[in-house]
Amino acid sequence: MRIVMIKGFSKTGKTTTVTALASELRSRGYSVGTVKDIHFDGFRADSPGTDTFKHMEAGACRVTARGSGETAMFADRQMSIDEILKYYKEDFVILEGDCGLKCPTIITGRTVEDVDRRMCPEAVAVSGIIAESTDRYRDLPVINGRTEVKRLADLVEKKTEKASEELDVQLTIDGEEIWMVPFVKKTLKNVVVGAVKALDGYEDGKEIVIKIK
Question: Which of 4, 104, 138, 176 is deepest in the core (most CB within 10 A)?
Answer without folding.
Answer: 4
